[in-house]
């Protein structure tokens, strides 16, 4: 397995619900007019609390400072696991589950805080730039680590550091909403831009027949992790969710936002996931 | 959805049908304009062809890529890859009872929806259809579907955790289980099946090119590169693959897959399509975005000698099939170099044939050939006399014949060279006579130190510098008025004398020695050659009218003589210097009707005023040497250089070799020769002539060196190797600087010193190789050990004798070679004694032994050595075509 440290320096920001109007222009530019900006990494997540925007430093320049914009101080680096085509196709589990054991758990043990961004194509594990040496030394054994510099992949090795801490268990919330995950061909973006703008900035209803790609019809349920905003320093949050899912071979998407973390699990598995998480929350109390 | 990117596909089996796909599929038939003109709705594609729309299929929206089923049956089956990753089989213009009925409408659905980037049918096992998809975090990007597979039962679908929408489940034509899944967690941008093995699939993945082997899917060969788009195999060269990235095309050799063998020059705009021409080897067409030209790369692999890795040459050029921007193009499968181009917008189509490059070649013999496409043309000049005579006239034929007759090699009687050249060319005759006179004059000076002719400055250089320079320095000219010989009448014709003029006359060949102005010898030689008119003219110019008449009479009486000469003699005898006589009046007008130029100038001379001899001097059919000699006698110091300069210029412009008399072998002479070579191509004469020049400037002239090298190459091309060797020897004698330095030395195995070098340091000259038997005189004492360390020299692999020992079986003839003139056998025997080595295995021996060994064997004579020495020598098996 290969681990790629991608060539992006990312900022994690949050825009408050009522402050979105101030950012309509830069956001439309970043989403739809990709040739007008030098931003290479952009992610926007809407939650009931706020909008989380993850973007690289070039994109960050577009966002004007405002009372509605909260910025996490650290620089984050995205990691990406590449299976390298080697035959590890035994497990059907999707996404975070697959890398839970190999990446997330070891990083949690090393007290490295991670920010997860699952997408249709792949999972990005964001780590703070200052933690990079720990990350490299931790994952060196299992992965061939490459750092991307200007499109070329350069192998990386590092000196070792170590520390450990017991994670806190956070409460979870499982709303009744159903979620649908899909991907878009960049070429089709212009043709649906107006609809997307409408959905993003003006209304909240997503038209049912908008995207042709929803064919597989998979539906997902969400698990929200955290009662209080989680902050960015605590480690092991992703691990405590993804570990049990991996044990039960349940696929998942995991999306961190400014305040909380969210895991998407297949609808038919939600009962067992609920049971499992409930059990996990009771266990520390009893033991 | 993908309407902005049209594409074209030719039918694999109907040479007149193609499909255009943009937002829908359109099937067209292409035909000549005439036959389709009547019908409405035809689209003109070119001046000769037009297309008819046969069918439209808009059943498959969101098309991303299309591939045409490669086999005959079903005929018009297309696979369409959609934006959601589904692959749908569809058909165009087919009646629904056809064989593909059960296939049409079949869908192949990946587990996770994402764009289908590329499709490729397996060319052999045509049930296999490979689809390349975008990345999904837990799915494969290369799916190989079996189109003949039975529809998967729904139970297995559930087991595979595939949740299909209810609509899909209703339709019974959905296949969800691919035959092979490859490239996990990766994106596939382009695919092609390798022609060298139908089980191999080449895929352009996200960051690498990968070759998947269907027999062992867990393994793949891959190379990291950015050039992963549009992989395509050269149909003529199954190991050659092209791929591209942005504006750059990379050419790969699958046998050496680590890096591209070639990268083509980068284009400023990103490429959209790269395609090998199916009808022409090594021709690659590329198209960039927003462009109206197609760039062609012609990759030529010329077989190179062993171990000599040279870059294949690429010829790049552009074609512009139409005015508008090109959306896509497709080569025709069988029509040579033909393609259909579709514009980026409006679906404007153009039928276009790329015109083949023309390559032209002269052979070293007489023919001119050119190649265009698959046609080879030989050029034959049309003429009334037929091809044979034209070939005879050709300078290449002439030079070949002259080379065989040893033209240029007569160094004693130099003038005889024109006879060796066939003796038909008056210019060559003049040239070689000029050279003969130049050489004899300079030779005489050198040897005899002829006191009478001592001139100021360097005699030798004056002689070589031509009459033009000689008369420039003229001084001490004396004027004399002589009587007509045999009569006491005083002439009013002044005649001029000086040493330089005398030298010039000698160079003209009129007089042979000293200041002796007697031309009697010359006249006699002319009489012998039956040049009556010329002899008479020369006699007349020497004011001997009686002798002239006598010569003309002789000429009239000679065998096949012209009786008219008697009439001329009679006219001549009536000469009078009376200015207003009837004779003078009639002669000056009637002389122009005389056909022979010499007779004509005789009367011109007699009827001219003294000093105004234009009638003689500008009679161009009179030999230059005679006109110059005449000028030296009768023009004064002011007129003479002017006339000579003018004549020189004329000769130089015309490239007339007679002018060498004036220019000599100087830079002027090279200029003259240059225009002669430009006119005739006769580098042979130019080379031999310039070699005769005095050592120095002319030989250093790059033009002269160029002629000499070209002549040598020509001899090589004719396989006249002996002639070339002779020429090189000849050249070495005349131009010692042309002798190449020894570049190969034989070094001792033990001390490493060069055995020939250590010999040459010995002051006694002329030993060299001779003591090793190399020079072929076996009677002399032989050295069989290294002069440096006294260890034995290498042995002949066949006779096991050391180097330096003569070949045993020619000892008998060895005794008799005291004679200077070696016979052919002796020459061969000499060569047999030489030592030769194979550069590859380093075994060798006597040349004679080696030659006879390889007559019957292919491998080296040393046991256990399998070197095929003789075959490594590319020229070893060629036979010279001049066996002198």
TrEMBL record, chain A:
Molecular-function annotations in GO: arginine binding
Superkingdom of origin: Eukaryota
Domain CASTOR ACT: 76-141, 216-278
Signal peptide region: none
Main location: cytoplasm
Pfam family of the protein (one): Castor1_N
Subunit structure, as described in the record: Forms homodimers and heterodimers with CASTOR2. Interacts with the GATOR2 complex which is composed of MIOS, SEC13, SEH1L, WDR24 and WDR59; the interaction is negatively regulated by arginine. Interacts with TM4SF5; the interaction is positively regulated by leucine and is negatively regulated by arginine.
Record's protein name: Cytosolic arginine sensor for mTORC1 subunit 1
From TrEMBL, chain B:
One Pfam family per UniProt: zinc_ribbon_16
Gene3D superfamilies attached to this UniProt entry: YVTN repeat-like/Quinoprotein amine dehydrogenase
Superkingdom of origin organism: Eukaryota
Any Gene Ontology CC annotation: lysosomal membrane
All residue ranges annotated as the GATOR2 complex protein MIO zinc-ribbon like domain in the record: 748-870
Domain MIOS-like alpha-solenoid, residue spans: 399-634
GO biological process terms held by the UniProt record: cellular response to amino acid starvation; heart contraction; positive regulation of TORC1 signaling; venous blood vessel development
Any one GO molecular function term: zinc ion binding
Subcellular localization: Lysosome membrane
Keywords tagged on the record: Lysosome, Membrane, Metal-binding, Repeat, WD repeat, Zinc, Zinc-finger
InterPro entries, alphabetized: MIOS/Sea4, MIOS_a-sol, WD40/YVTN_repeat-like_dom_sf, WD40_repeat_dom_sf, WD40_rpt, Zn_ribbon_mio
PANTHER family according to UniProt: GATOR COMPLEX PROTEIN MIOS, WD40 DOMAIN-CONTAINING PROTEIN MIO FAMILY MEMBER
Family: Belongs to the WD repeat mio family.
Designated name of the protein: Missing oocyte, meiosis regulator, homolog (Drosophila)
Source organism of the structure: Haplochromis burtoni
Lineage: Eukaryota, Metazoa, Chordata, Craniata, Vertebrata
């Amino acid at each position: 397995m290969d681990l790629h440290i991608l060539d992006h320096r990312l900022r994690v920001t949050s825009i408050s619900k009522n402050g979105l109007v101030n950012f309509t222009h830069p956001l439309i530019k970043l989403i739809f007019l990709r040739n007008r900006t030098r931003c290479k990494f952009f992610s926007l997540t809407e939650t009931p609390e706020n909008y989380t925007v993850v973007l690289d430093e070039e994109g960050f320049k577009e966002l004007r400072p405002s009372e509605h914009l909260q910025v996490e101080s650290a620089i984050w680096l995205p990691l990406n696991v590449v299976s390298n085509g080697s035959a590890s196709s035994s497990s059907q589990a999707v996404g975070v589950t697959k890398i839970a054991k190999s990446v997330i758990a070891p990083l949690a043990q090393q007290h490295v805080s991670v920010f997860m961004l699952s997408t249709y194509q792949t999972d990005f594990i964001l780590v703070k730039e200052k933690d990079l040496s720990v990350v490299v030394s931790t994952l060196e054994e299992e992965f061939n680590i490459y750092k991307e510099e200007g499109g070329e992949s350069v192998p990386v090795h590092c000196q070792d550091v170590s520390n450990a801490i017991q994670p806190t268990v956070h409460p979870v919330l499982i709303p009744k909403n159903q979620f649908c995950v899909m991907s878009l061909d960049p070429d089709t973006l212009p043709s649906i831009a107006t609809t997307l703008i409408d959905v993003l900035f003006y209304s909240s209803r997503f038209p049912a027949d908008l995207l042709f790609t929803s064919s597989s019809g998979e539906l997902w349920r969400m698990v929200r992790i955290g009662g209080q905003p989680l902050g960015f320093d605590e480690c092991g949050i992703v691990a405590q969710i993804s570990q049990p899912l991996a044990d039960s071979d349940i696929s998942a998407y995991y999306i961190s936002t400014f305040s909380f973390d969210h895991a998407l699990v297949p609808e038919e598995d939600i009962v067992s996931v609920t049971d499992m998480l409930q059990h996990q929350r009771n266990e520390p109390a009893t033991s | 959805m993908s309407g902005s990117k049209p594409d074209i596909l030719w039918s694999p089996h109907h040479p007149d049908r193609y499909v255009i796909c943009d937002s829908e599929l359109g099937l067209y038939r292409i035909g000549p304009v005439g036959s389709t003109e009547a019908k409405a709705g035809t689209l003109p594609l070119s001046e000769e062809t037009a297309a008819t729309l046969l069918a439209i299929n808009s059943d498959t929206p969101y098309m991303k890529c299309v591939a045409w089923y490669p086999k005959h049956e079903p005929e018009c089956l297309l696979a369409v890859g959609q934006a959601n990753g589904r692959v749908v089989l569809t058909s165009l213009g087919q009646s629904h009872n056809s064989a593909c009925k059960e296939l049409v409408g079949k869908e192949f659905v990946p587990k996770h929806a994402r764009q289908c980037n590329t499709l490729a049918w397996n060319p052999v096992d045509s049930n296999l259809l490979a689809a390349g998809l975008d990345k999904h975090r837990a799915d494969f990007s290369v799916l190989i579907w079996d189109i003949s597979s039975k529809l998967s039962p729904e139970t297995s679908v559930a087991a595979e955790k595939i949740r299909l929408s209810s609509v899909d489940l209703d339709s019974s034509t959905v296949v969800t289980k691919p035959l092979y899944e490859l490239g996990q967690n990766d994106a596939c941008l382009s695919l092609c099946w390798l022609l060298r093995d139908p089980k191999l699939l080449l895929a352009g993945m996200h960051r690498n090119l990968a070759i998947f082997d269907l027999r062992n899917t867990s393994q793949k060969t891959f190379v990291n590169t950015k050039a992963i788009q549009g992989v395509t195999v050269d149909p003529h060269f199954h190991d050659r693959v092209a791929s591209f990235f942005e504006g750059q095309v990379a050419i790969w050799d699958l046998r050496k897959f680590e890096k591209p063998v070639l990268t083509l020059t980068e284009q400023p705009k990103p490429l959209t399509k790269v395609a090998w021409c199916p009808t022409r080897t090594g021709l690659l067409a590329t198209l960039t975005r927003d462009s109206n030209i197609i760039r062609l790369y012609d990759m030529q692999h010329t077989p190179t000698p062993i171990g000599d890795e040279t870059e294949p040459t690429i010829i790049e050029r552009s074609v512009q099939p139409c005015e508008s921007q090109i959306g896509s193009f497709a080569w025709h499968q069988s029509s040579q170099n033909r393609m259909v181009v579709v514009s980026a917008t409006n679906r404007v189509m153009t039928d276009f044939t790329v015109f083949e490059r023309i390559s032209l070649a002269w052979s070293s013999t007489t023919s001119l050939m050119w190649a265009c496409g698959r046609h080879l043309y030989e050029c034959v000049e049309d003429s009334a006399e037929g091809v044979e005579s034209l070939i005879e006239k050709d300078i290449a034929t002439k030079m070949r014949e002259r080379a065989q007759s040893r033209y240029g090699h007569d160094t004693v009687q130099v003038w005889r060279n024109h006879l060796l050249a066939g003796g038909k060319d008056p210019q060559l005759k003049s040239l070689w006579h000029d050279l003969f006179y130049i050489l004899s004059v300079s030779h005489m000076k050198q040897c005899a130190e002829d006191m009478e002719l001592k001139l100021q400055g360097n005699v030798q250089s004056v002689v070589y510098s031509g009459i033009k320079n000689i008369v420039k320095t003229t001084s001490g000219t004396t004027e004399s008025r002589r009587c007509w010989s045999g009569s006491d009448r005083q002439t009013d014709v002044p005649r001029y004398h000086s040493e330089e003029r005398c030298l010039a006359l000698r160079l003209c060949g009129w007089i042979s020695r000293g200041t002796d102005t007697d031309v009697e010898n010359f006249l006699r030689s002319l009489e012998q050659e039956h040049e009556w008119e010329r002899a008479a003219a020369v006699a007349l110019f020497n004011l001997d009218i009686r002798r002239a008449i006598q010569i003309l009479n002789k000429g009239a009486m000679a065998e096949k003589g012209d009786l008219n000469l008697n009439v001329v003699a009679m006219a001549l005898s009536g000469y009078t210097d009376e200015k207003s006589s009837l004779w003078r009046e009639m002669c000056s007008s009637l002389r122009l009707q005389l056909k022979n130029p010499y007779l004509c100038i005789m009367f011109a001379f007699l009827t001219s005023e003294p000093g105004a001899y234009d009638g003689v001097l500008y009679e161009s059919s009179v030999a230059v040497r005679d006109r110059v000699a005449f000028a030296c006698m009768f023009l004064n110091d002011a007129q003479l250089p002017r006339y000579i300069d003018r004549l020189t210029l004329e000769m130089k412009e015309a490239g007339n070799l007679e002018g060498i008399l004036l220019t000599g072998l100087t830079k002027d002479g090279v200029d003259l020769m240059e225009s002669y070579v430009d006119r005739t191509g006769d580098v042979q004469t130019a080379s031999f002539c310039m070699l005769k020049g005095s050592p120095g400037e002319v030989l250093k002239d790059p033009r002269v060196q160029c002629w000499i090298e070209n002549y040598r190459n020509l001899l090589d091309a004719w396989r006249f190797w002996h002639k070339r060797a002779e020429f090189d020897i000849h050249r070495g004698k005349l131009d010692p600087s042309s002798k190449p330095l020894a570049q190969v030395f034989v070094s001792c195995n033990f001390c490493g010193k060069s055995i020939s070098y250590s010999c040459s340091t010995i002051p006694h000259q002329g030993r060299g190789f001779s003591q090793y038997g190399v020079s072929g005189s076996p009677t002399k004492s032989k050295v069989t050990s290294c002069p440096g360390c006294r260890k034995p020299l290498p042995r002949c692999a066949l006779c096991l004798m050391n180097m330096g020992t003569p070949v045993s079986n020619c000892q008998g003839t060895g005794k008799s070679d005291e004679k200077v003139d070696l016979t052919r056998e002796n020459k061969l025997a000499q060569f047999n004694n030489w030592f030769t080595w194979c550069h590859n295995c380093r075994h060798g021996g006597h040349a004679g032994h080696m030659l006879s060994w390889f007559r019957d064997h292919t491998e080296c004579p040393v046991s256990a050595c399998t070197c095929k020495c003789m075959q490594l020598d590319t020229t070893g098996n060629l036979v010279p075509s001049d066996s002198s």
